[in-house]
What does this fold into?
Amino acid sequence: MRAIAADPTGVTINRAFGRRIYYRLAWRALRRGDFRQALGLGLRGLRFDGTYGPGLLDLAGRLRTLGDRAGERSVLAAAVAIAPELGWGHYHLAKLLTELGDDAAAIAHYQTAAAQLPDFFWTWEDLGEALQRQGQFREAVDAFERAGRLNPGNPWPHHHRGVCLQKLGDAAGAIAAYDRSIALDPTFVWNHYNRADALAALGRWPEAIAAYETVTQLQEDLPYLRRKLHQARRSGNTAPPSNPTPTLQGETALWLALAADPTNGDLYRQVADHYRDRGDRTRATVYGHLAQLIPPDTPPSNSPANPT
It folds into this structure.
């Protein structure tokens, strides 16, 4: 029976439980015909006393192979209690807690592991992802920045850092992070998609349009992609030209212009755009269809250039 018991000397694992795990694995190895591994596992079981941190890490790994997550968690908890300076124990326990969906508990062990294993890339990367899932974006940015310095050729810290900066409202910083990630992995579609959103947030419409169009070349079925591309194109066309020409303003002006020139296809298109911008898809579709029925070679009539 598995047991963790506190006593005056610390935390221990039931010796019989640990030995039983090793003997069980030794028997499996023996049945596979792997006599050397079976002998090694049997000797480990014979020597196991349940009071040494690194030895418990090995036992936790054996429990993982058996699919005993509860046992693995108990043994790892005992390992870090017996040897709190054991950075790998904190890291493996944090990973297990993450897999079990307990990020809040995992973060403390990731932080301890990071303090004891400051040069291990995955400690900082995994810590950043756990913080990100918990909504602690500022702390996550710091963790991803550290991970990026440890492994500058890995695109993931830069991508996740960009996501967190975007959540914090720092669109310019997010774009810089996405640019670094894209330089390392130009095929990852979410870098381009999120970068396009950040560019749109800054009103940099030509760059946003180009980024959205890149996304369509990589993967067309992303949520809201077509709508965002359409909105970016329309927003990019709202800036007045250097030599502005008179344009129709308001619904009344559009109707007056159509009454004066009912065969002008451009006016029907303007009416369709007018309703589309206001969310009236039915009318937008009707007037867009009417615009297509007007022959393209119809000469312009005597509609006023700037109706009142």
The longest strand covers residues 4-7.
